[in-house]
Specification:
alpha/beta, 3-stranded parallel beta sheet, 3 helices, 36% helix
Amino acid sequence: MLARAIEETGLPTSAIVLIKEQVERVKPPRALFVPFPFGFALGKPDDPEFQHKVLAASLDLFKSTSAPVLAEFP
């Protein structure tokens, strides 16, 4: 996966994913599963407050000291 190659250069990555089963197989370094429809990885359009919550949850994965990390958005 591309995220692993980028991490090898020293740049941390975090993914927002829509298909939990796929990310469980691929095991990227950090991933946030969101239960939204395809095309809406950050939630509903025109809801910047909620979208910022999704982005903040994804960025919070950088605090983890172990990898891989798969978190679920509440």
